[in-house]
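lol so apparently i was supposed to do this last week
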Amino acid sequence: MLNIINSCAVVGLDCQPIEVEVDISHGKGVFTIVGLPDKAIQEATQRIRAALQNSGLKFPATRRLIVNLAPADTPKMGSAYDLPIAVGIMLETLKIKTDLRQSLFIGEVSLEGKLRHTDGILPIALHAKERGIQTLYLPKVNLGEADLIADLRVVGLDNLGELIEHFTGRHTIEPTRTHGLRQTNTESSYELFDLCNIKGQEQAKRALEIAAAGGHNLLFNGPPGSGKTLLAKALPSILPPMTVGEILEVTKIYSVAGRLLKDQPMIAVRPWRSPHHSSSGVALIGGGRLPRPGEISLAHRGVLFLDEFAEFPRVTLEHLRQPLEDGVITVSRAAGSLTFPARFTLVAAQNPCPCGYATDPERQCLCGAHQVSNYQRKISGPILDRIDLHVEVPRVKFEKLNDDSGGETSATVRQRVKMARTRQLQRFQNLPMVTNAEMNPKAIQTFCPLNNDCQKLMQQAVIKLQLSARSFHRLIKIARTIADLAGAETITAEHLAEALQYRSKN
Ligand SMILES: Nc1ncnc2c1ncn2[C@@H]1O[C@H](COP(=O)(O)OP(=O)(O)OP(=O)(O)O)[C@@H](O)[C@H]1O
Ligand SMILES: [Mg+2]
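anyway here it is w/ magnesium ion bound
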């Protein structure tokens, strides 16, 4: 007899319906899975046999058991089909006739018959809802994730034994209804890295504020020990709270990457990723046999901090070109290519030369001119052109270090950032963008009209600084963010002049 159980495959961040067909007939005792399964699925035969036996079910060991994962021509990966396969066998063995056409099953089982934490439940729950599935059966440990999608009937299972009791009617399980994303605390405390603990460096702090408000990329350049890493670490303390849409977007990525914890089923605080310069290209941009999001996607809607920027291999940094421009990364794999979101704020920190003191007016640099220029050439022009805010971080003078008066706290700056971000959210209502940094040329034309003074200033800047078309647009976007921080409706020459200070000096 044939049983068909609904399941689905996660492809990138999306899902594709998979039908698990289980056929049990008379014949030799075989158990085979077909439909382009990978090694993990092939091994499911062993897992499911043991799991069903340990759950008190008599496994049909003397019969011919064929499982087909349809559509048969799409490669399937992972262990999430364990549950639908086990259900197909269970129904046949127990001789149960029940209509499961409106149900979807997903989850890995252990030899003991317990359901294990499974990756990608958030996109699966979303898929189930869009497909009009009535009940989603999944591991209990994943319930928190599914709960982020509203109005879905879910059954969280601890083990296969519960399902046997349910199907045989000994103990029916009533599905629960999911709530959807509820108001949550998106504020986290970063007392260790409060801006008020950083002495001097006013321009760098202001640049952090602009980066946080408008999502602009930022590069700190300066001698060792001047506070570049310290400044970058203070950025999370002034980032604006995430919107509901952003929380779902980011949580989906973490769900697929298998990075959600049972007691932390969603990402409600902006991500902060700081991969080491020895990280591989795949770790940074994503990919692999079973394609996973890389650091740049894990930093989506948050910050990607690349410390010791010039120490990253040039080829690794070049991978950042597409995501820095488009906010997405396309990774190739055998069966085609996949796209992951990667709209992050890049914060980079570097020394100006190998010894670190080329820009220090008081301390002598030990590098030759050639060494300095070689070091600076390690980052390509196109990457530098994609960084909006270039900031020199000089050594702090003793008077400043000794000054205990303290500057603005992160909480005060965060208030301004929040206000500026709210203005942007209102501006981009119904448009596929959230921050000023994401504006395309058309949006710049609509939202950033320049008055005569601004036009003149821009003309001079383009000629004098030999600005590329991209730099020209980026400059206007920064000026828009500066105006938003000031609560101004239109960009003035003053805002543009400040934006110009952060241009690359190369
Ligand atoms: N402006 C500052 N205010 C207070 N403390 C500072 C400041 N700058 C540096 N420090 C102190 O110096 C330490 C080193 O700073 P940090 O690691 O940020 O330097 P860096 O510029 O990143 O240096 P490198 O180029 O070597 O990476 C900090 O942990 C902090 O204790
Ligand atoms: Mg540092």
